[in-house]
């Protein structure tokens, strides 16, 4: 079969994790459809969104997986960690507990995700300043400890949302291109992308 | 047997045109119908017929869930009335909080309460009833969920319960008597007078559900929805003065409480089912428990989920092979950086995504409410079978479109894009019909349920899959035994299936001395494919070495074996003693029997002599008497013959008929005697 021009140059799979109610779905809605709604719905299981973006002259298809945050679903959500190339760790700046459990989430990533997965820390709901329980400094400090980027966002007021997604997507893109070269990625699509990256990240089965 | 079968099939055919109430009524009408209008007929009525009529629906559900039994059981153990129990739960939930308030105001922001608090307003966000801060919907839902969490501390609160409880609340709301229009309303009055109260309730249920149906369950369409709901609200109030469920402040507290309690007990019945069954081991309970095992699904770590997903996946493979294959290829594209390790990973991304939502919320998350209540009629009756059927029926609707789509995509070589779009579309589709018009036009409940009826899911198939899954689990466990034990969950049901199989084999192998066969059974490549047996054997030896090592370790575990042996001895010891005693007794009896035979031989001539001397006169006497009796019998039978064979002229018939009656009064003893002799003679002859 003749090889047609693919509509995108690479596909990147992002995963959003964080405690229940920190606003993962809202962030995703804001980013994918530039929309914020006052009515929320509990995410049960997993949800997807696709967003095609132009990233440094590359056409990238972002496939973003939005997970349920409740503790008891971790057995299910962690099984999706493996395929993820970038992970957004989300906490709620008005909820100290959600910030504290970021450490727990990172531990989960270490256990279940690929070794080279790119991470980013996001403190959501920064528009609600009067109920803030986690300062910007604390967030930045934690991010520095893990050596990852950090943003405070507001899905409601559209602060830093796109920046956060783009940042992690760019990191992933750069890593993949450094790993596999853009040629393979361009023609073979996602499969070729992953093949070179696979060697080093054989952690454990699940 | 044949007529029973026939009656059943006729009843089933008829039931397809009836609703559940009719079927129940029919089965109560007569005993013959009860046989026919059994569970199959009820199922037919729920799937093909009208389902439960709106005004009886809640009672029917309560019956299916065995709410009364649960209530009695719990109340008996707690020695309180049902009302008191609920109150005490609420009080417990509120204790330590600021004051005696209930509802969202009393929720603390942490722990289970916090989780409930966060989710209450995120349940059915399309419905203003639940969305209003501190409104009755929120308060009632949070009360129910908190009471459940207190009553079942091991389950606590699991996301998904909010949707089930919410849907139950809505169903109660729509059938509430206060929901009927004001009595001074003319139309309402007429309806009351001819007793068709149900039609009103249907209408009102319809209104509540319309709100739900047209509202998006998903926040994306919020703007549109706001306009819609505002408009409908205003038009509603202007059209008639009926109380709107969305502005429900007018309700007395008592009514709130009653409804809350009803919903709570239904939830409690859903949750206690397993426990009730675990206590009483009779077959019925076991069956009931197998039907609804939501409890394990909602436990922390959702231990039952993988089993159910596996079952669904395999059923899907059987029922819709093309769609299943399609999912598999899609999954390959999705899971970019990973080639599936083995067939054990077959329950893929898509299947889990699909099914987890459906299972956790019993479809409350994705079906519009009018469809949902109809679906629950069937679902509560059938349990997991119903859930799987419904899920497959829904997927069958999309199968054609999806497969065609992907075929087109292949031709155009834009498959990647389509696959990507598809998964998003798919996830939208799963969250409600409205948001995915491209994939699915709105499906009327009748059509969906009819589709359900044509899908066959048997309990035995489910059980087989469950066993299959248990074996798989064990295999995984054994192969992974060397690694860190993370998230290894064994559910009760899996264990049950496993125990039987495993324990039996273990014991048999131990007692029989062989150690080969069951090792193979649990090795990853069992059963070996016939064509590639040699290759498989080599591979099996390699792969199963881990398993074997683990198992051999068990077999070489001296203390374990000793303990087993002791246990067996402990069980078999008393039996062996008994056997010895019995053997002694049997031997003694045999000896005695032999002795008796010898004696009999010796005594035989004497007995004969004795018999002749003593018994002969008596026998002669008896023989004479018998002879006499026989004569009389023959005489009587001769007379009877004459009567029967007489020509059928009227006189004779009359006289024959009259003869006994005329002769009757004066000679009753004779007749009775004759009758007795006749009977005796008959027996003798």
TrEMBL record, chain A:
Residues 179-206 are annotated as: Disordered. GO terms for molecular function: GTP binding; GTPase activity. GO terms for biological process: protein transport. Keywords: GTP-binding, Lipoprotein, Nucleotide-binding, Prenylation, Protein transport, Transport. The keyword Lipoprotein applies. Pfam families: Ras. PROSITE patterns: ARF, RAB, RAS, RHO. InterPro entries: P-loop_NTPase, Small_GTP-bd, Small_GTPase, Small_GTPase_Rab. It comes from the Eukaryota. SUPFAM superfamilies: P-loop containing nucleoside triphosphate hydrolases. Belongs to the small GTPase superfamily. Rab family. Protein transport. Probably involved in vesicular traffic from ER to Golgi. NCBIfam families: small_GTP (TIGR00231). This is Ras-related protein Rab-1. It comes from Tribonema minus.
UniProtKB/TrEMBL annotation, chain B:
One of its GO terms (molecular function) is small GTPase binding. Pfam families: RabGAP-TBC (PF00566), RabGap-TBC_2 (PF23436). Transmembrane segments: none annotated. Residues 51-383 form the Rab-GAP TBC domain. Gene3D superfamilies: putative rabgap domain of human tbc1 domain family member 14 like domains (1.10.8.270), Ypt/Rab-GAP domain of gyp1p, domain 3 (1.10.472.80). It comes from Tribonema minus. Residues 676-685 have a biased composition (Gly residues). InterPro entries: Rab-GAP-TBC_dom, Rab-GAP_TBC_sf, Rab_GAP_TBC_domain. This is Rab-GAP TBC domain-containing protein. Residues 179-193 have a biased composition (Basic and acidic residues). SUPFAM superfamilies: Ypt/Rab-GAP domain of gyp1p. Residues 177-203, 219-249, 658-685 are annotated as: Disordered. SMART domains: TBC (SM00164).
């Amino acid at each position: 079969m003749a090889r047609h021009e693919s509509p995108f140059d690479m596909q990147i799979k992002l995963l959003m994790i964080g405690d229940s109610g920190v606003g993962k779905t809202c962030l995703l809605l804001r980013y994918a459809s530039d929309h914020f709604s006052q009515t929320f719905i509990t995410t049960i299981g997993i949800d997807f969104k696709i967003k095609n973006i132009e990233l440094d002259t590359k056409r990238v298809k972002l496939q973003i997986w939005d997970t349920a945050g409740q503790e008891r679903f971790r057995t299910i959500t962690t099984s999706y960690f493996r395929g993820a190339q970038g992970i957004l760790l989300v906490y709620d700046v008005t909820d100290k507990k959600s910030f504290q459990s970021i450490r727990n989430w990172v531990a989960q990533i270490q256990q279940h995700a690929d070794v080279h997965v790119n991470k980013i820390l996001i403190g959501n709901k920064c528009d609600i300043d009067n109920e803030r329980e986690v300062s910007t400094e604390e967030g930045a400090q934690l991010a520095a400890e893990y050596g990852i980027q950090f943003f405070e966002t507001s899905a409601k007021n559209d602060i830093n949302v796109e920046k956060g997604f783009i940042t992690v997507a760019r990191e992933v893109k750069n890593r993949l291109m450094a790993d596999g070269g853009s040629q393979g990625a361009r023609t073979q699509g996602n499969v070729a992308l992953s093949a070179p990256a696979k060697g080093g990240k054989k952690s454990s089965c699940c | 047997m044949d007529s029973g079968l026939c009656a059943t099939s006729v009843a089933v055919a008829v039931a397809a045109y009836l609703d559940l109430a009719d079927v129940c009524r029919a089965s109560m009408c007569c005993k013959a119908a009860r046989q026919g209008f059994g569970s199959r007929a009820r199922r037919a009525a729920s799937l093909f017929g009208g389902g439960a009529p709106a005004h009886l629906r809640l009672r029917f559900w309560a019956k299916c869930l065995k709410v009364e039994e649960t209530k009695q059981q719990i109340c008996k153990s707690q020695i309180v009335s049902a009302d008191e129990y609920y109150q005490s739960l609420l009080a417990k939930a509120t204790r330590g909080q600021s004051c005696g308030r209930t509802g969202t105001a009393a929720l603390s922001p942490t722990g289970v309460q916090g989780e409930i608090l966060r989710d209450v307003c995120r349940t059915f966000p399309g419905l203003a009833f639940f969305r209003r801060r501190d409104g009755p919907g929120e308060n009632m839902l949070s009360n129910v969920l908190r009471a459940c969490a207190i009553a079942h501390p091991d389950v606590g609160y699991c996301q998904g319960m909010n949707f089930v409880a919410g849907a139950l609340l809505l169903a109660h709301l729509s059938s509430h008597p206060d929901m009927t229009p004001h009595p001074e309303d003319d139309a309402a009055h007429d309806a009351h007078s001819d007793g068709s109260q149900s039609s009103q309730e249907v209408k009102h249920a319809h209104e509540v559900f319309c709100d739900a149906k047209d509202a998006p369950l998903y926040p994306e369409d919020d703007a549109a929805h706001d306009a819609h709901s505002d408009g409908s609200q205003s038009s509603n109030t202007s059209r008639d003065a009926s109380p709107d469920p969305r502005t429900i402040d007018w309700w007395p507290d008592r009514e709130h409480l009653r409804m809350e309690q009803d919903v709570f007990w239904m939830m409690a019945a859903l949750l206690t089912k397993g426990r009730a069954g675990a206590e009483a081991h009779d077959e019925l309970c076991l069956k009931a428990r197998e039907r609804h095992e939501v409890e394990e699904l909602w436990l922390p770590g959702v231990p039952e989920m993988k089993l159910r997903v596996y079952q669904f996946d395999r059923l899907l493979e059987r029922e819709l092979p093309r769609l299943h294959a399609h999912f598999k290829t899609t999954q390959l594209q999705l899971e970019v950086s990973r080639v599936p390790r083995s067939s054990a990973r077959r329950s893929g991304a898509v299947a889990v995504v699909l099914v987890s939502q459906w299972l956790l919320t019993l479809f409350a998350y994705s079906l519009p409410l009018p469809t949902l209540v109809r679906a629950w009629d069937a679902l509560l009756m059938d349990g997991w079978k119903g859930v799987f059927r419904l899920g497959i029926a829904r997927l069958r609707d999309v199968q054609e479109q999806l497969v065609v789509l992907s075929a087109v995509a292949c031709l155009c070589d834009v498959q990647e894009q389509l696959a990507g779009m598809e998964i998003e579309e798919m996830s939208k589709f799963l969250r409600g019909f409205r948001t995915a018009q491209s994939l699915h036009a709105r499906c009327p409940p009748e059509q969906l349920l009819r589709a359900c009826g044509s899908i066959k899911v048997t309990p035995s198939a489910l059980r087989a899959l469950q066993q299959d899954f248990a074996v798989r689990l064990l295999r995984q466990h054994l192969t992974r035994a060397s690694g860190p034990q993370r998230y290894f969950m064994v559910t009760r049901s899996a264990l049950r299936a496993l125990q039987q199989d495993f324990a039996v084999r273990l014991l048999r192998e131990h007692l029989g001395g062989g150690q080969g066969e069951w090792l193979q059974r649990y090795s990853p490549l069992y059963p070996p494919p016939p064509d590639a047996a040699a290759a498989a054997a080599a591979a099996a030896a390699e792969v199963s070495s881990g398993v074997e090592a683990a198992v051999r370790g068990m077999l070489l575990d001296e203390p374990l074996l000793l303990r087993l042996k002791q246990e067996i001895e402990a069980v078999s010891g008393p039996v062996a003693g008994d056997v010895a005693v019995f053997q002694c007794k049997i031997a003694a009896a045999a000896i005695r029997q032999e002795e008796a035979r010898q004696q009999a031989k010796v005594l035989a001539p004497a007995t004969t002599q004795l018999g002749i001397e003593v018994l002969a006169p008596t026998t002669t006497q008896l023989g004479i008497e018998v002879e006499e009796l026989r004569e009389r019998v023959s005489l009587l039978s001769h007379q009877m013959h004459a009567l029967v064979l007489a020509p059928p002229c009227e006189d004779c018939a009359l006289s024959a008929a009259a003869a006994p009656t005329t002769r009757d009064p004066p000679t009753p003893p004779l007749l009775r005697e004759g009758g007795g002799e006749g009977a005796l003679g008959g027996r003798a002859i």
